[in-house]
Amino acid sequence: MIKRRIKHDLFKTLIIISFILLKLVFGQQQQENQKQEKNSTATITTNFIRFDRINNNVKHISRDDLLDNENNLIYVSNDVDIKYWTSEQKQALQKEMEDLVYSSAYLEEANENDFNYYYKSLLSDEERQYYDIFSGNVTKNPPESTVTIDFNANTDNKTLFIEQNNEFSVKLYTVLIFENPEIWWYGDYSRTIYNGKKVTSEPLSYSFPVKYNLFPEGSKFSGYTPSKVVLINKRIEEVKNRIMAEIERLNLTTDYAKLRYIHDYLVIKNVYTLEENIRHIRTLYGSLVEDRCVCEAYAEAFQYLARQYNINVISAISSTHKWNFVQMTVGEEKKWYIVDVTWDDPGIANEGHPPSGSDKNLGLQYFITGRTAYKTDKAKKSHTLVFNNYNSNYTVIEYPTIEESDYQTNDAEKNEIKVELFKESILSLKSKSIRY
Predict the structure, then answer these.
(1) What confidence tens digit (pLDDT) does each residue in 386-432 have?
(2) 322-334 mean pLDDT
(3) How far is residue 230's CA from residue 208's CA, in Å, rounded to a whole number?
(4) How confident is the model at residue 94 (pLDDT cuts 50, 70, 90)?
């Protein structure tokens, strides 16, 4: 009896020990699986959108068509262009960016590229294909308001797909906005993501339809019809042509002289205003046609006009300000400098004396300058860079390296600068401005 009990106790003990050992082994295996799953997720996050058959997957569909699939939607978002944020939102972002180590207005390490569309050059080949789809869509005459694309993903994880598509969309739209100031009506956008469908099992492939609305309800220009957009574009084109005709008449041949004329034109012609009831104060239409605007319009108009001469000018933003970087040829090299047309407006630099829109005391302190011009606390605060156009969650763009010192003009450039002649020409154009 005692022997049988001992055997029974030993058997129970062996079972308990075996259970503990199995639990330990299973626990280690579970940890290993979690590590592998984590690594797998990282791989999926990096590579899980496949860009095959892009052109075949683009669909232009109406709202009515999508209503049939309303029950299938899994995510809806609305991203607002930073220039249309409230003052409180902008200040909060500025504080957040100031707390980040990398948020310097004088970024000294970034990708260098001579490509004339700097931000587009940061995109991968696959991303550029999507960029071209959206660019072609919004630049049609008249522009289309929606585009739906089937994204092929190698996962059925909806949360994973949504997160990846969030970052992808922010990057795509940021580059599109930064590279194309002429699509002034474009900025805010909404997305509706629908349930994915299995395409293949081996390898695993799911197709997620994503509808982009380029004129979402409540956005700045949501009430504009395509024909109104076309009409406004025509007015912008008319002003641009008059400016270019003057530059040709003055026989300006160097990039420096052309940039100087554009800079002086925008400062003399525009009145800086924060009247938010004026719809276009933050677009190049406000700067070129209505002559009343803020920093976004100065910077976007400067970029738009400079691009007509294939001069590599890009925009840069903080949470509260927008200005430009310009690439100049120095000897055999191409170097980047800063242009801040807004800060060169006399009314801004001198606290309203003389008033904005004047040809008196035309500022040049921030025209093709190096980083040394922006060492004051005020300049640093206003020029703390933001790395995407919609939020601080993703770093989707990089800025070029800016030279420490100001650009030095050569003799050919100096000879083309006729300050009084420029003023006379600009005032003549200003007097002939058409009021719509």
Answers:
(1) 888 887 678 888 999 999 999 999 999 999 999 999 999 999 988 87
(2) 94
(3) 33
(4) low
| pLDDT-based confidence at residue 350 (cuts at 50, 70, 90) | low
Q: Give the three-class secondary structure for 23.
A: helix
- 145-150-152 Cα angle (round to 5): 150
Taking 70 as the threshold, does the pLDDT of residue 27 lie above it?
A: no
Q: Rounded to whole angstroms, what are the CA distances from 243 to 57, 306, 420, 432?
A: 42, 11, 17, 12
Helices (H), 209-225: none
φ/ψ bin of 351: left (φ > 0), alpha (ψ from -120 to 50), beta (otherwise):
left
- If we measure between CA atoms, which residue out of 432, 237, 231, 270 comes closest to residue 363? 270
Token reading at 141 = 């005459």
User: What are the tokens at 70?
Assistant: 């309303």
Quick one: DSSP state of residue 364? -
**Who contacts 401 (Cβ-Cβ below 8 Å, separation ≥6)?**
107, 108, 109, 110, 112, 336
Q: Among all chains, which residue has been given the structure tokens 């574009």?
A: 233
Cβ atoms within 10 A of the Cβ of 264, count?
23
Q: Which two tokens stand for residue 333?
A: 């090299």
CB atoms within 10 A of CB 330: 13
Name the band, by pLDDT with cuts 50, 70 and 90, for residue 106: very low
Helix/strand/coil for 402 = strand
Q: Which DSSP helix (H) or strand (E) runs through 192? A: strand 189-194
Specify which residues 217 forms β-bridges with: none
Report the residue count for the chain: 436
pLDDT at 326 over 70: yes
Please choose, from the candidates 67, 315, 347, the residue with its C-alpha nearest in 3D space to the C-alpha of residue 182. 315
pLDDT at 252: 97
Using one digit for the tens of pLDDT, what is the confidence trace for 73-84? 666 766 666 665
E-only strand ranges, 279-332: 292-293, 313-317, 322-330
Query: Distance of alpha carbon 289 from its chain centroid, rounded?
Result: 24
Report how far residue 290's alpha carbon sits from residue 283's, in angstroms, rounded to the nearest whole number.
Answer: 10
The alpha-helical segments, DSSP class H, found in 49-139 are: 63-67, 87-98, 125-138
Taking 60 as the threshold, does the pLDDT of residue 154 lie above it?
yes
Give dist(CA 371, CA 172) in Å, integer: 29
Q: Is 291 left (phi over 0), alpha (psi -120 to 50) or beta?
A: left
Give the C-alpha distances (Å, rounded to integers) separating 156 from 9, 72, 198, 220.
50, 14, 8, 36
Measured distance CA(266)–CA(234) in Å, rounded: 19
**Rounded distance between C-alpha atoms, residue 206 and residue 167, angstroms:** 19
